Amino acid sequence: MFDKIKAMLAQSGLRSGPHAAFRERDIAVAALLLEAAEADGGHGDDEYAMLRALIQRKLAMTPETALQLLEAARLRQREAVELFRFTDAAKRAMDETERAGLVEMLWEVVYADGVLDPFEDRLIRSVAALLHVPDRLRAEARQRVLARRTAADQ
User: How many CA atoms are closer than 13 Å to the CA of 107, on its beta-carbon side?
Assistant: First the structure.
């Protein structure tokens, strides 16, 4: 029975190749950050630099490990047909505070280029809802990001 389950998991790619080195939670976070960076039709250098910096800092990874995680997340992202796969993995692995922190990271990525596109805003609203992050926490996360950006510009 267990051999059948392991074989099915191996066939689905859940724990093979570059994915195997990372926790599902970390791949989910990186994939959602990639989605945010690309929500407006592609990611610019600012968004991608912010994304890499967040992964290194928040997930305590070296630059090389962060790039490997991003590669694994990009592969997983290509396989996925919806965000639920990633939001569900994050929701199961994180408490509410950590999920709100993830939403704040998403705001950091979309504001990295200084412009909030309507598609980016819609993506974050959807992800926050799927993560069961209340609107109040989502809005507070956005305000913290905007306050940091304003302080950095002065």
Answer: 21
